[in-house]
Amino acid sequence: MLKYINYGLLVFVLITILAELLHWSPVIIFFAAAIGVVPLAGFLGQATEELAFYTGPKLGGLLNATLGNAAELIITITAINAGLLDLVKASITGSILGNILLILGFSALLGGIKFGTQRFDRTQAGVNATMLILAIIAMLVPSLFGQAIDQVNHASVEYLSLSVAVVMMVIYALGILFSFKISTQDELIEDAHAPTWNLQTSIGVLLASTIAIVYLSEALVGAVEPVVATVGISEFFLGIILIPLIGNVAEHVVAIQMAMKNKMELSLAISVGSSLQIALFVAPLLVFISLALGHPLTLTFDPFELTALMSAALIAALISQDGESNWLEGAQLLGVYVIISLAFFFLP
Fold first, then answer.
1. Strand, helix or coil at 178?
2. Beta bridge partners of residue 324, listed in sequence order
């Protein structure tokens, strides 16, 4: 069913191209590009999973981890190139919040309704929760100290962000090495049964999807400012809510499907693991990429983002400590996500 929906949504890729050529309203271009990215992210994810069969389980797990957020990474790089740094930071925050609160919430809710209490490995869940809190602390330090440092020397704030980014990426690499000893990623790959595409098709779909996402990302980002002025939605809200959902929709669907198959451990690994990937790999990587693009990005977030991130990380840690989840915890996570979303919506 999802496969046919993906194929149907590809029409929005053509609509975006046509809208760009005929100079249609930026609002049409924005929403057509946003919807068009959804199936492309799905094909990108499927191509990555197919390649995992040919690279072996461990390398395949690393490949999945590296390319899992490729669609969002492309969108944020395009936004950096356009100088929309606040949109990028909001997207980072929104991705972490979406994975921990929205997707983990839906997974626990739907899985809990179907199976009651679902159990998972407390050890790995605890490690991920600790890593997540560490990642938020790493984002908190430049934000707090940067304000005082910036009054003396702005360049020092950039050096601090670069230094913290290096540490974050080292910790992420160590986390991957540690996860090689745990079978979660292997189980996720094996669950797909057998490859349906050959190696050449997998690589071809991967490249084609990436190129198409780059094109749609440029159209999407180029229409952001006109959409903000026309619709009245803030650029900050677009980054917090909409862009993370667009870039991670394929991964989100898989996480919920795993919970519905009573594989809550895999669902937790996807949702929390994706948040770790954003915080410890994508965000630091964007700091270095921004230098090359001439728009330096610092790891300084505003108090509203930091408060939301700390709250989400704390909730994830609390849910992980007992090794089980239920529908009520899922409803609570979704409730917190709605509250935070409403707050960001009304934030001027």
1. helix
2. 119
Give yes or no for a contact between 51 and 203, defined as CB atoms under 8 angstroms apart.
yes
DSSP 250-286: HHHHHHHHHHHTT-HHHHHHHHHHHHHHIIIIIHHHH
> pTM for this structure?
0.84
The pLDDT of residue 164: 92
CATH assignment of the domain containing 63: 1.20.1420.30
Instruction: Report phi then psi at 116, rounded to 5.
Output: 80, -130
Q: How many domains in the chain?
A: 1
Which residues are CB-neighbours of 296 under 8 A, at least 6 positions away?
Answer: 158, 290
More confident residue, 287 or 345: 287
Amino acid in the structure at residue 288: F
Beta bridge partners of 118: 325
The torsion angles phi and psi of 324, rounded to 5 degrees, stand at -150, 160
> In the predicted model, what is the mean pLDDT of residues 145-157?
79
317 by Cβ neighbours in 10 Å (0-12 / 13-18 / 19+) ranks as: middle
Phi-psi sector, 193: left (phi>0), alpha (psi -120 to 50), beta? left
- For residue 324, the surrounding DSSP H or E stretch is strand 324-325
Supply the range of the domain harboring residue 187.
2-346
